[in-house]
Task: structure prediction
Amino acid sequence: MDILQKIINYKKPLLEQQKRQIPIEALQIHPYFKRKSLSLSNALTKPDSSGIIAEFKRRSPSKPAINLTADVQKVTTGYQKSGAAALSVLTDTHFFGGKNLDIEQIRDFINIPILRKDFIFDTYQVYEAKSIGADAILLIAEVLSKDEILQLVKTAHELGMEVLLEIHSTSQLDKLNPYINVLGINNRNLKTFEVSIDNSIQIAGKLPKDIIKISESGIRSPEDIKRLRTYGFQGFLIGESFMKTPAPEQACRDFISKTC
Result:
């Protein structure tokens, strides 16, 4: 069983329990549920955008201790001041050390889009993302059917949020639909766990020309950004390269200053 399916299998019974404890009606009365979401696609495509989606991540299944003591408010407000176009915040607890509260704690201090990065497979989770203050959600094509993606996208749009659909290979292109706001290419090979931006470059030419596309994982230098831009990428999700340093916000600032 690959790691993605293992995560989904772990989360499904927990979600069913949560749905019984906190019904959708309870999510809908949360103060953030009524706030107007910021546009991730606009943030990535405006003329002065850095295109950087800076990620807050404490750990991962492959690296259990990236930065366990990082302060979410200090790091994310630092990312914002550094010129990040948007934020990505991991909210999965068991595998990534995140929590919904991470987004709720920073929402009032952040005026750029926040992507809730989690393993979403149920419309309940879309309502949950809205209630905690997320502007956009991540959907992973690897673990969702075409019909499931369409339903989740429609729910997100009904709630005023945007969607980043993540694919790993060209075999998942048939899961695209016209409502996807941003398409992400994950550069991690799910079988070998090797990471290379060449995956983004190889897939780029096979994507719809008018879709906003971002490259995820394995981006380690400003030169990588410049190279990816020549293939039409407008967004670049970077997490570990920043988070593994003592001061992720400073690492972000230094990185962005070299890409301009």
